[in-house]
Amino acid sequence: MAPTVSWQSIQAEALRRIQARDWKPGDTIPHESVLAEEFGCARATVHRALRKLAEAGLLERRRKSGTRVPLNPVYKATFEIAIIRKEVEAGGHAYGYRLIETAQALPPPEILTLLRLPARTRLLHVVALHEASGSPFCLEDRWINPGAVPGLELADFRELSANEWLVQNVALSRIGIEFFALAADAGLAAHLQCPQGSALFVIERTTWAGSMPITAVQLIHAPGYRLTAAT
Amino acid sequence: MAPTVSWQSIQAEALRRIQARDWKPGDTIPHESVLAEEFGCARATVHRALRKLAEAGLLERRRKSGTRVPLNPVYKATFEIAIIRKEVEAGGHAYGYRLIETAQALPPPEILTLLRLPARTRLLHVVALHEASGSPFCLEDRWINPGAVPGLELADFRELSANEWLVQNVALSRIGIEFFALAADAGLAAHLQCPQGSALFVIERTTWAGSMPITAVQLIHAPGYRLTAAT
DNA sequence: GAGTGGTCTAGACCACACA
DNA sequence: GTGTGGTCTAGACCACTCT
Fold it and tell me: What's the pTM value of the predicted model, to 2 decimals?
């Protein structure tokens, strides 16, 4: 028996051919069945390797037309969304947490728009500080839709952060994520112990259970924070 | 014949069970073979559905131990890396490009460290501005390793941006990406036509062909820029 | 050692996109 | 219509990991 061929080895060989320009941008590459014969494996094995490359943006596949190397590839990068405590601990720091404020309140209109809720809907506002080795790490400024979160009235955010409580108590289906930079105003500067005007890195997330908005949060990181992604 | 069951439908049903807490965080879910029998399909079909969910961070799979719903899920989000021209055009703006500077120079030591190049290696420095409908969109501050890019001396970055030229002319295999916020100094403020001290969103990328460093670039975006990711 | 997920095969049929 | 990738099956074996 010939040894079996792994889809990873085919993926690696395809990648090599793309990088070596054996398969040039714009080219249509051989059909799955042709490659299967060349590599001496089943078509399904070739299929999986090429599908992976297509998911990463390195190939474009279309029925009938075949598979081609894109002229302007659009690569995909991924990053991980962990709870903040884990992120701090992964950095080798002691995690600290402090609740700053929690209250039912009328959110600014842009929050309601973001969550597609009617005007004048009251939400639960939770503001808390996450610390790394005693220094401010990230200010969590969150609005929670009480109507979508049963058991919310029982939650005590003085010890467990809303970040962590929601992950453990709410099943979510969709997350919208945006990143931007924000200059520290007086309040942020005080909480994050940085000069007013410092450039802060903000992650804004909205989470949904089906079509029901759960929460919108801004994670405002202390100066120096960097987010790393992988391809 | 019974109609065949798609892996998407199994994925959807598994997702439903996770969200409905039929399968609770910490639980071990039934084996692939059991689910295959329940759904009346081949084990491979179940496998693909569960593998997809595991890749998204919604399940944890281990040989021998089985598949479980994680207590602290780590979700994965992805974003796309397109050439800047396409990104501007996708936003409905007219794309403009202006080369600011190009020169062989000694880069700051942190760039060499980032690219794992020996001290005092000279690199090609390219600075250019990308515009959206006539306004500054993004300043591209790039260092290129000439030794790794054959044909670089033929490139003319006055018309085609280095961003675009490299995508089309260099096969790369790995990209490192980081995001952070930066306060505009006098030079950046002038180029991006914003007040000094504005909070700017920066994407820093290093690209490699195998173990060979190709280029390091900072894409310093004008105020107001937001990066969107998807889950 | 044994049980689970991970992979491969050979074949079949389906669905979409192009003529 | 026709050709390509996309999927499913039934079975087999492998590899990791836990006891």
Answer: 0.88
